[in-house]
Task: structure prediction
Amino acid sequence: MIPFNKPCVTGDEEAYIQEAIRNEKLSGKGEFGKKCTDWLEARLGCERALLTPSCTHALEMTALLTDIQEGDEVIMPSYTFVSTANAFVLRGANIRFVDISPDTMNIDPDLIQNAITEKTKAIVAVHYAGVACDMDAIMKIATNHDIWVIEDAAQALLSTYKGRPLGTIGHFGTLSFHETKNYTCGEGGALIINSANSIQHAEIIQEKGTDRSQFLRGMVDKYTWQDVGSSYILSDLNAAYLYAQFENADLINEERLRYWDLYKAGLQQLAGKNFIKTPHIPEDCQHNAHMFYIKTEKEEDCTQLREYLDGQGIMAVPHYVPLHPTNAGEAYSEFCGEDKFTTSESDKILRLPLFYGMGDEAVTHVVDRILAYYKI
Ligand SMILES: *Cc1c(COP(=O)(O)O)cnc(C)c1O
Result:
């Protein structure tokens, strides 16, 4: 039996959690939280990183930081996780979806211009599978129209675009440490802040709308209600788990990349015969092997292959159901332009098992079963 995912464990997690307990500091911003944010800031070179209870929460913080108001519009792909849209709908925004490029499943920057109106406040660039969106094109459009860019880098920690870490190119980036992501603590996330001007506001939003962060630094003698906010802080128990992962980040990354390359090489002949497509990595992008997916010729092939693999004890899973034709999508969003690829390409995607500790043989076994299915 090969599961689709196993949460990453490197070995130091238990000892660090025990240390957090001994420290008698379980709430947020303890020793491990500080170690994690220092690591992120050094590794990414961002102005500030704040740990949040999830990427969903980090996205909600960006909706507050960009001051999204009722009726404002936010542009993003429909092929994404619900939180990307929900975070802005919670503030009253209307979502304007645009189509994706079939080669990366990322937002097609050429289609963004047509979706912009005078109400457009932000573009959310989702780096699918840890492969970068065309950030130069997106930043150019955003600068021309003076709108915010948020990178949903939930899947993209340690990926780069033209050598720059994902999450650090737009105004804000958001990361996820959910157990399905490369680096995890069960549930967790981070907000990446790329402009020093936004740090104080972000800290207030994160601390229930108070200036407690300044109080903790001894800059005010009492902390008080300053603005709209919520509880967007990660517990130090989770941060303890996460720090063990950060310390082993390169090891985890290298191992995942090795599995990814094994899949790519093993399935090359099938892709060469056009039975399937394997992921395309644009030249400007270094990815983090967050995901290995294949695309079948037709939707039916995808279902049949999935059932076949399931019978072989291999869990392969589809991915996003596009957001625009759903109940909430119909209420809160509009698809701008033609849905040429979003629906049709998402129907053909099958994600293969890939997790730290999987082992080369398991990858080779999955490859062999897929080759057998296609009788190669
Ligand atoms: C996983 C994911 C999220 C949500 O992350 P959580 O930490 O579970 O809130 C958001 N966006 C994308 C693109 C994701 O892959």
